[in-house]
Amino acid sequence: MSLLNDGAAISDFVYDDRAFRASIEGRFASLDADGDGLISFAEMAEELMSLKVLQASFDVAGTGLSHRFLVELHRDIFARFDRDGSRATVDLEEFEDEMKEMLMAVAGFLSEGSENKWSRLCAKL
User: Fold this and answer.
1) Integer Cα distance of 72 and 34 in angstroms
2) End-to-end CA, the chain
3) Which residues neighbour 56 within 8 Å (Cβ) at sequence distance 6 or greater?
4) Mean local confidence (pLDDT), 97-112
5) Contacts for 75-80 with beta carbons within 8 Å, 24 or more apart?
6) What is the pTM of this model?
7) Which residue stretches, if any, does this entry annotate as coiled coil (predicted)?
8) For the chain, which has fewer Cβ within 10 Å, the N-terminal or C-terminal residue?
9) Domains of the chain, with CATH numbers?
10) CA distances from 10 to 51, 79, 81 (A)
């Protein structure tokens, strides 16, 4: 079974402190483009734009989403990570905490058997 379809495997990964921390540190370092030990909004927004999450996940490429809308969406995502409310940067601890919370929400989502998974997942996030 694929890790992406197995909530228990995701949960096990999150609770494997060594493996999870190594993964988070690697991902954090790749996002921290200037190497200052912090992720700025610009660094995170650049990554979010390169992922084309909306286009790939929700097939909205042709809906005419404005640049302003996408910037606000990226600000909202950044705010989730910016747990101290500085609105300027995300440190490794904030990044790790939010990634853990998101992955555990996904694990719970994948472990549920009901057809209303999507609405419950959105409520958790």
Assistant:
1) 23
2) 25
3) none
4) 87
5) 75/41, 77/44, 77/48, 78/41, 78/44, 78/45, 80/125
6) 0.74
7) none
8) N
9) 3-124 (1.10.238.10)
10) 21, 24, 20
